[in-house]
Amino acid sequence: xxxxxxxxxxxxxxxxxxxxxxxxxxxxxxxxxxxxxxxxxxxxxxxxxxxxxxxxxxxxxxxxxxxxxxxxxxxxxxxxxxxxxxxxxxxxxxxxxxxxx
Length: 101
Hints:
Layout: H1 2-7, H2 21-35, H3 50-76, H4 87-98
């Protein structure tokens, strides 16, 4: 009775490969040679070198900080915008932060 139950299940057929790996590689090489005989490589030339980009970013960052300080201290904080560059202004701000004033 067990034989009848297992007879209806078919085992998958395993096919043996007809080609060896060497012949498959040779066929791939031949196909790529037929498609593109010369490999063309595209190289991008940068208009601005990376080192110059880094310097420009640092300079722009310094400029934006400077403008922000002038606007924040001079116009929003009701101070004189030229006082941002004075050492006494920053010493006073540090004293306020440390709690001396």
